[in-house]
Write a structure and sequence with these properties.
- The chain is an all-alpha fold and 140 residues long.
- The protein has one domain.
- It is built from 8 helices and no strands.
Length: 140
């Protein structure tokens, strides 16, 4: 391959050295490091007057549920205790990320685009768990 300067040895780094696959532990650590950015994002979206009140109510209810000691699946159940929290946050954020408010999410996000892509993939995974009957009932 030849680059713009005519160097015949040029080859994009992505093709020369593939990125090593990340372990679930590395992905979990990376996701945990996103929590402060998520908290800031949700706080800013709740304060933004351009976000419809129904979205704010949904986010507020989800936040109330997450911090509440009462859960559908108790948090002390190892491996499953946080699933209900993740799913509810995923559904609420999915409404924002894929709705008409998506540009506001990008405007209020402090992290990198790659980290937002990770959030989007976790959100997509959380929404996939929810039965389609429930997701069809949610407003878009």
């Amino acid at each position: 391959m030849v680059d713009a300067t005519g160097d015949p040895g040029f080859e994009p780094i992505d093709q020369r050295v593939p990125a090593p696959p990340r372990t679930y532990r590395e992905l979990a650590l990376e996701a945990a490091l996103l929590i402060p950015n998520l908290v800031k994002l949700i706080t800013r979206l709740l304060r933004d007057p351009r976000v419809p009140i129904k979205r704010k109510v949904a986010l507020g209810l989800v936040l109330g549920y997450v911090v509440s000691p009462i859960d559908l699946i108790p948090d002390f159940v190892i491996g499953l205790g946080r699933i209900d929290d993740i799913v509810l946050i995923s559904v609420a954020l999915d409404q924002m990320l894929n709705g008409p408010e998506a540009p506001l999410v990008f405007e209020h996000w402090d992290g990198s685009i790659d980290s937002l892509d990770l959030v989007r993939s976790v959100v997509a995974w959380g929404v996939e768990i929810v039965p389609s009957v429930v997701t069809r009932m949610l407003p878009r």
